[in-house]
Amino acid sequence: MKIVFRVDASLVIGSGHAMRSLVLAEIFRSRGWTVQFVCLPQAGDLISFIEKKGFSTLKLNAPLTFMQPRFDGDYESWLHRSEGEDAVEFIELVGAADWVVVDHYGLGIVWEKQVTEKLGCYLLAIDDLNRNHCSDLILDQNLWPDQRSRYSSCLASKLLGPEYALLRPRFRELKLSAPEKQNQVVAFFGGSDPTQECRKLLEASSSISRLPFTIKVVTGRLNQKHKELLKYAEPGYIEVIQFLEDFEFELAKSKYAIGASGVSNWERFCLNIPATIVSVADNQRTLSKFLSQQELAFYLGEGAETTSETYYKELCRLEKTWSSVKPFSRLEVDGCGAEKVATIMETYK
């Protein structure tokens, strides 16, 4: 059986789509499937990272001109071409597939129709945007206020909610065998940190002489400001690191987390880590507000509007309440979502 993933990463897109697709890809490889990725080469594309994981990667032709987003949520610009053009090249490169997985806000029903008609394959659309799709399955791992009515116009089977969250197996392992907690806060705002939340947090933390916890700021693989942020590191108090090989363990042993909304929410819930969140992308706003309303996270607002003062106040709040911080357990995420999705896909013959 052959499965092909159409996914991109970039300084604009970030790394989240590629990383969650890799989780599913690892499972299918372990089950004996042939796995390929098809990606568009661009700054921050993670193609070499995917290849280092041992996956075959087919590269689309890079456009002569790369489009810049006109506004937050301008997903058409992510593709740098039309959906039809992308589909034609994808079909030519792939040739044949049993399943295609598409995780891309710039690709939708036009692309899906062309691909399924030409390849005669099953298709899984991983999405967060409540759009119409021409697919066999739709996966939206988020928790929404309108959960039951999402994708209502689609005929596809729907896998909705955090029970299907695509989390690395390490999260499940640490959930079942959690390390001893330390007085540590882990901060991570995504692979590229588009609204520079790391800088704001570090500016705030460096202006406070004493806190009852250490702060570990993970700036992200695609963060172009990483070297500039190293000046804020203070041994034994503030650590600045671009990425962690075992991020899961560092998160699991932390009493608290600060970070972007999105897939990171389900990682934190899986490990029962209470968190303060920020929406750093257009599609995270509704989700973040809903989690706050349900008292599932403490929401600071949109990254476009937060400042170092925002984080200074939040750190002061944490300082005052630190002794009462407890593991979070109001939302159960078992960490088995990717296995569930793969098992369902294997039922299609």
Relevant terms:
single chain; 349 residues; alpha/beta; Rossmann fold; 2 domains; 7-stranded parallel sheet; 12 helices; 13 strands; 19% strand; globular
Would you kindly provide a brief summary of this structure?
It contains twelve helices and 13 strands.
Describe the 3D structure.
With 349 residues, the protein is an alpha/beta fold. The protein folds into two domains: 2-167 and 335-345, 3-Layer(aba) Sandwich (Rossmann fold); 170-324, Glycogen Phosphorylase B (Rossmann fold, 3-Layer(aba) Sandwich). It is 32% helix and 19% strand. It contains twelve helices and 13 strands. The chain has helices spanning 16-30, 47-52, 83-94, 109-119, 169-176, 197-206, 226-229, 247-252, 263-270, 285-293, 308-321, 337-345, and strands spanning 2-7, 34-39, 56-59, 99-103, 122-126, 137-140, 157-160, 182-188, 214-218, 238-241, 254-260, 275-279, 298-302. Strands 3-2-1-4-5-6-7 form a seven-stranded parallel beta sheet, with helices on both faces. Strands 10-9-8-11-12-13 form a six-stranded parallel beta sheet, sandwiched between helices. The longest helix is centred in the N-terminal third of the chain and has 15 residues, at 16-30. The chain is globular, with a radius of gyration of 20 Å.
Amount of helix? 25-40%
Strand content is 15-25%
Q: In oligomeric terms, what are we looking at? A: single chain
Query: Treating each run of at least 4 consecutive H or I residues as one helix, how many helices?
Result: 12
**Biggest β-sheet: strands ordered side by side in the sheet:** 3-2-1-4-5-6-7
Mean pLDDT: 96
Radius of gyration over all CA atoms, rounded: 20 Å
The largest β sheet comes out as: 7 strands, parallel
Taking pLDDT < 50 over at least 5 consecutive residues as the criterion, the unreliable ranges are none
**H and E string:** EHEHEHEHEEEHEHEHEHEHEHEHH
